[in-house]
Design goal:
The protein is of the alpha/beta class. The protein folds into two domains: 1-98 and 270-349, Isopropylmalate Dehydrogenase (3-Layer(aba) Sandwich); 112-254, Isopropylmalate Dehydrogenase, CATH 3.40.718.10. The chain is built from eleven helices and twelve strands. Helix 1 (13-30) links the parallel strand 1 (2-9) and strand 2. The longest helix has 18 residues, at 13-30. It binds 3-isopropylmalic acid (IPM) and manganese (II) ion.
């Protein structure tokens, strides 16, 4: 019996999470897997009502869960940063979810803006470091609001932080057994302290994996290759900030924000699964958001929990739904509603 914390949060989060749970229920039932979904009222509305973001008591409860399933964070009436830092980054950092796993996979039947590229060309995984870099929140401001103001935002890289994410990436490349290649995506030509540490660590950890090819790409060039030759990639390991940026580009080539899922993983702790899209408040309550990313995230969660059959069934059902051509262009204007999409996927499990 698994216990799964459900944090629908803001905007379209609750709508897409409902569809993920709908599909999960069918898939789990099919394979006799039992779980309890415990929902938490966290997000912008609660913050505006009570001033609370995540109470310590909730953090303690989440620490006891088998996994966290999250919708989306961000509320138009809350200044940027408060909920992002107070919810998403707090969970990632406090639960030390140091791996942000972001598959970039074009499913059959999904439109990509890349000319002459198909599902055989777009199938790689970005392993984004998830606890360091500019995300650590170290820095400060002085003379704020004056013409002389100064701001510092520090990027932090640690030897251990680099090692553990890289080891995960190499293991993943071995397991995928595709090109047996890991690309380090960095900016070692400019960030000559931080990304020098990153690259030296990559070379050193790489020695433990003689069967895996090591490649290097600067992040700007990587953006170019995503569009020009996505088929070159198998596993990419990259820093937190660059991983954030390149996976929005990755989402576009795999069919849009509506299909890109992710896992925030701590192999020894509590992991969290979410679509990579935001809360899209303008679509809230309209039943138009594409829930595929949230559904795939539920599948990733089950795989992570060791329920390969359930996870595989969810992914297969999504693949069938996408291949059926019944889901339109997966945008908010597709003419297929959030709930209809969930129903179709659930019927194909
Ligand atoms: C993401 C998001 C977050 C990030 C924001 C909301 C803090 O963009 O998950 O990609 O930057 O990591
Ligand atoms: Mn992002």
């Amino acid at each position: 019996m698994y216990r799964i914390a459900v944090l629908p949060c803001d905007g379209i989060g609750p709508e897409v999470v409902a569809e993920g749970l709908k599909v999960l229920a069918v898939a789990a039932e099919k394979f006799g897997v039992k779980y309890e979904a415990v929902e938490y009222d966290i997000g912008g509305d609660r913050y505006l009502r009570t001033g609370e973001i995540i109470p310590d008591s909730v953090m303690d409860e989440l620490a006891q869960m088998d996994a966290i399933y999250l919708g989306a964070v961000g509320h138009p009436d809350v200044p940027p940063g408060i909920l992002e830092k107070g919810i998403l980054l707090k969970l990632r950092f406090e639960f030390d979810q140091y791996i942000n796993l972001r598959p970039v996979k074009l499913y059959e039947g999904v439109w990509t803006p890349l000319k002459d590229k198909g599902p055989e060309d777009i199938d790689f995984v970005v392993v984004r470091e998830n606890t360091e870099d500019m995300y650590v929140g170290i820095g400060g401001q002085m003379k704020r609001g004056t013409p002389d103001e100064v701001a510092v935002q520090t990027a932090v890289y640690t030897r251990k932080g680099c090692e553990r994410i890289m080891r995960y990436a190499f293991e993943l490349a071995r397991q995928r057994n595709k090109h047996k290649t890991v690309h380090s995506v960095d900016k070692a030509n400019v960030l000559t302290y931080g990304h020098d540490l990153w690259r030296r660590t990559f070379a050193q950890v790489g020695e433990e994996y003689p069967d895996i090819k090591k490649e290097y790409a600067f992040v700007d060039a990587c953006c170019m290759w995503f569009l020009k030759n996505p088929e070159w990639f198998d596993v990419i390991v990259t820093t937190n900030m660059f991983g954030d940026i390149i996976t929005d580009l990755g989402a576009m080539i795999q069919g849009g924000m509506g299909v890109a899922a992710s896992g925030n993983i701590n192999p020894e702790g509590v992991s969290m699964f979410e679509p990579i899209h935001g809360s899209a408040p303008k679509y809230q309550g309209k039943n138009v958001a594409c829930p595929i990313a949230a559904i795939l995230a539920a599948g990733m969660m089950m795989e992570h929990l060791g329920e390969q059959e359930v996870g595989g069934a969810i992914e297969n059902a999504v693949a069938k739904a996408l291949a059926s051509g019944k889901l339109g262009d997966l945008s908010s204007r597709s003419g297929v509603s959030t709930t209809e999409t969930g129903d179709l996927v659930a019927s194909l499990v």
